[in-house]
Specification:
Function: Catalyzes the insertion of molybdate into adenylated molybdopterin with the concomitant release of AMP.
Pathway: Cofactor biosynthesis; molybdopterin biosynthesis
EC number: 2.10.1.1
Radius of gyration: 31 Å
Catalytic activity: adenylyl-molybdopterin + molybdate = Mo-molybdopterin + AMP + H(+)
Bound molecules: ligand LQZAQKY5, molybdate ion
Oligomer: single chain
Helix content: 10-25%
Strand order of the largest sheet: 1-18-20-21-17-13-16
Family: Belongs to the MoeA family.
CATH topology of the largest domain: Molybdenum Cofactor Biosythetic Enzyme, Chain A
Number of strands: 28
Strand content: 25-35%
Distance between the termini: 44 Å
């Protein structure tokens, strides 16, 4: 029997990250940048807050005036103005004077404290005018601490300070930070334009009648959705038969309008494995993947670093289950192409383990790694020796409980069980050195629900 060299998950991922091109930067208005990755540090143009302002609805006071205030004997201050948020006014406050002030309004230069309206004499929240009319004077029932309820200029961010760094994705909370710091345009990486091709003469569009031998193409929908979740744009999604001419035509047609290609099916050793025939014709169809005798692509490895950066498309066995047969490389036009196995669970796992990292790398996010959370498994199963295993899993613990997970399918990670993917809420990872998982073991879980 032939012996095969298996590439490790890490080696394969490194090869992907070493070959994918970094997309060019483009400037965008902040309003169009959601989901993009920063190509340069974003620098604040404003102090944040831009000026000292009130944290409360209440009264801006001179704290020295309030030193003797007590409940039985309140200090009364004349209210000389009202400062709503948005005002630019800076009324002078003489001793004994205060200004009504709303949350977010600039603090008068003469004031050094804010007293919330609730802490003033006679405050009655049930009164019909509560909070609406400004009284002529206000009684204070305790001394105001200097600096109280004041938000200081620049305490959050200073003008000139880096608010977010190159390589960070523009998530909603980050967009808010940039907008608040006065930034209106950002340098971002261009979105990768991706072509998704399902290969296989057995495939029909979902919903079409299937005759014996045919199945609905479920992979291309899944992969397209995954691409979008990774910040990519799907410019073309299609199916091709096992006729190599069809795949060649799609690759040629999309050369100028896309940055990357993802194929599924035909990655293994079958006689009709069209992806191999088209992308690595020298390997022929139906021959074993890369042999372990030091010939072929295996001999070209950069032995020192273990990072083979030969750009041509290579089909290899990776020590992962599912997802063993993997094709990856650069097309002659420079586009990275992933050729993933056709089994639906294998395609899902392959994307998450090998494609996602590459598409993020193209956007300048090579350092981004998914978060895995320790979880207790309530089930046991076997894991193939020396292969990292990825099991579709579901959370079985309740909200607020420590995380407990089970397999999404009772039959483990059978890579053809597409229907049972519906139960998966995420993935469990089992390291290569673990051959068996027992109930109660700690595993690593990656949540994947939208
Ligand atoms: N002799 C060997 N046979 C196989 C090996 C092997 O090492 N030696 N590896 C097996 C493993 S593991 C996998 S995974 C598959 C991968 O095969 P291919 O990438 O060539 O995929 P296909 O043969 O085209 O399809 C496999 C399976 O998936 C179904 N499929 C394909 N495309 C789709 C799609 N778009 N949507 C839904 N389902 C799809 C297809 O009908 C097949 O049932 O090879 C094993 N064989
Ligand atoms: O490796 Mo295949 O990808 O198990 O099903």
């Amino acid at each position: 029997m032939a012996e095969f060299r298996y590439r490790s998950v890490e080696e394969h991922r490194r090869r992907v990250l070493g070959l994918v091109p970094l997309l060019p930067a483009e400037d965008l208005p902040l309003a169009e940048a959601h989901g993009r990755t920063l190509a340069a540090d974003a620098v604040a143009t404003l102090d944040l807050p831009p000026w000292d302002n009130s944290a409360m609805d209440g009264y801006a006071v001179r704290s020295a005036d309030t030193r003797d205030a007590t409940a039985p004997s309140p200090v009364r201050l004349a209210v000389v103005g009202e400062l709503p948020a948005g005002t630019g006014a800076d009324p002078a406050l003489a001793p004994g004077q205060a200004a009504a002030i709303m949350t977010g309004a600039p603090l008068p230069g003469d004031a050094d404290a804010v007293v919330p309206v609730e802490d003033t004499a006679g405050w009655d929240p049930s009164a019909p005018t509560a909070g609406t009319a400004t009284p002529a004077s206000v009684g204070l029932v305790s001394p105001a601490r200097p600096g109280s309820h004041i938000r200081r200029r620049g305490e959050d961010v200073r003008a000139g300070q880096v608010v977010a760094t190159a390589g960070q994705p523009l998530a909603p909370q980050r967009l808010a930070a940039l907008a608040a710091a006065g930034i209106s345009r950002v340098s971002t990486r261009r979105v990768p334009r991706v072509v998704v091709v399902a290969t296989g003469s057995e495939l029909v569009a979902p919903g079409q009648p299937v005759r014996r031998g045919q199945i609905p193409d479920s992979n291309s929908l899944m992969l397209a959705a995954l691409v979008r979740a990774s910040g990519g744009e799907v410019v073309h999604r299609t199916r091709v038969s096992d006729d190599p001419a069809e795949l060649r035509a799609v690759l040629a047609r999309t050369a100028d309008s896309s940055d990357a290609v993802i194929l599924t099916g035909g990655a293994s050793v079958g006689a009709h494995d069209v992806a191999r025939l088209v992308l690595a014709p020298e390997s022929g169809g139906g021959v074993p993947l890369e042999a372990a005798d030091g010939t072929g692509a295996a001999a070209e490895h950069d032995a020192g670093r273990g990072v083979p950066l030969e750009p041509a498309v290579r089909f290899e066995r990776v020590s992962v289950q599912p997802g063993k047969p993997q094709g990856f490389g650069l097309l002659p036009d420079g586009r990275p192409v992933w050729s993933l196995p056709g089994n639906p669970v294998s395609a899902w796992v392959s994307y998450l383990v090998f494609v996602e990292a590459g598409l993020l790398g193209m956007q300048g996010r090579a350092a981004t790694t998914p978060r895995w959370y320790p979880a207790t498994t309530v089930e046991g199963w076997r894991s193939p020796p020396r292969r990292e295993q990825y099991v579709p899993a579901r959370v079985v613990s309740g909200p607020g409980e420590p995380l407990r997970v089970a397999q999404a399918t009772e039959r483990g990670s059978g890579s053809h069980l597409a229907g049972r993917l519906a139960r998966a809420t995420g993935l469990v990872r089992v390291p290569a050195h673990t051959d068996e998982v027992s109930p109660g073991d700690t595993v690593h879980y990656r949540p994947l629900e939208a």
